[in-house]
Structure formats: C-alpha cells, structure tokens
Amino acid sequence: MFLLTKALILLAVLGAAVASHAQASPTASRIGDLQIGAGLSNGNSDYLPQRFNGFTGYADFDFRSHIGVEAEFRYIHAPSPSAVYQKTYQLGGRYFRRYGRFSPYAKAMYGRGVFNFPYTPIDNTAPPNQPTANLAYNMLVGGAGVDYRVFSFLNVRGDFEYQHWLSFPPNGLTPTVFTIGAAYHFR
C-alpha cells in the first residue's frame, strides 16, 4: 500500500510539472489531412479483349507530412449487352510528396474484388436465367498518380493501378486501371 501511495504521488507531481510548462498551448491543430473524391475509370480487365469503363470513389487521410492511407471502391463493366463487371474494395498505405500545386504519390493496397463473368459449366448446361458467375477474390494492388490542387478545397487526380487478383483460375487476374477524378479537400 505504501508503494502504491508513493507511485500515485509521483504521477501527480509529474502530471503537474507537465501541465505547468511555460509554453502556450496551440489554439488550432489538425490530426491529419482528408480528401474525398470520385472519378471515371477505364481498365483492361485481363479477361475480355474490350476495355471496361466505370467509376471510382476514394478517400485519402494523410496523418504525416508524406504518409497516409487510402480507401477505394471501383466498379467497371464491359460494353453492353455483356453482364461482365469487376467491383473492387481496397485499403492501403500511400507515400506522397508536394511540389507546389502537384502531389505525386505511390500506393500499395490490399482488397477484395468481385468478378461477374460468363458461367460455363463443364457439361454446358447453364440455366438460361443465370448466365454469369459472381465470385470474390483477394487482391494486391500497386499504383501511382498525381493530385493537382486547383483551389485550396479542390484537387484533380490522374491515377494508375496494377491489380493482382489472387486465386483466380488458372493463373490469377491482372487488370490495369486508369482513373481521372476530383476530390474535395477538407481544410
């Protein structure tokens, strides 16, 4: 009990010393930098010869001067009348630098991809009301791009991604996707 009392007194003295420093407390501070945006995407599915078009939603939170995290959702689809599409959910880290209005970045992400593709069973007896298979796969993503600050609250972006869908038969799936977008930068 005596040792516990001494420890509590020591903590109280240290707390008082820290609280009574001679420096002024900051009047405004931020935990990080946030931007939320959307864009138009065009990709090579690595499954069909046609390019897929669609959209992307993303959010970046930069908590250090050059390091942050990015979350992304993307939906791209084959030209009509095909029902083939790829839908991805990704999260990962990003490294960026600022050069005036330009902020180039690189990112490494992990995610889940859902692929809707033609269903062709071994015995070729696909039911007419279910012509596609819808399966999900884990994926690794590497990418790079640049944000351009148009105004203090608006950034435009050019982005490239290389995706590797794990376990997609027979050797995985490796789509590449380009995105042009804009984001609201919270000040």
Describe the structure.
This protein is mainly beta. The chain has one domain: Beta Barrel (Porin), CATH 2.40.160.20. The protein is built from one helix and eight strands, in the order αββββββββ. The chain has one helix spanning about 1-20, and strands at about 35-45, 50-60, 65-75, 85-95, 100-120, 130-150, 155-165, 175-185. The protein has an eight-stranded antiparallel β-barrel with strand order 1-2-3-4-5-6-7-8. A hairpin with a 4-residue loop joins β2 (about 50-60) and β3 (about 65-75). It is elongated, with a radius of gyration of 24 Å. The termini are far apart.
Beta-strand content: over 45%
Number of domains: 1
Q: How many β-strand runs?
A: 8
Sheet with the most strands: spatial strand order: 1-2-3-4-5-6-7-8
Assigned CATH architecture: Beta Barrel
User: What structural class do the secondary elements suggest?
Assistant: mainly beta
Top CATH class: Mainly Beta
Runs in which pLDDT lies below 50 for 5 or more consecutive residues are none
Number of helices: 1
Instruction: Let me know the largest β-sheet.
Output: 8 strands, antiparallel, barrel
Q: Could you tell me how far the N terminus lies from the C terminus, measured between alpha carbons in angstroms?
A: 51 Å
Evaluate the radius of gyration: 24 Å
- Average of pLDDT: 84
Fill in the CATH topology.
Porin
Strand-and-helix sequence, N→C?
A: HEEEEEEEE
Overall shape: elongated
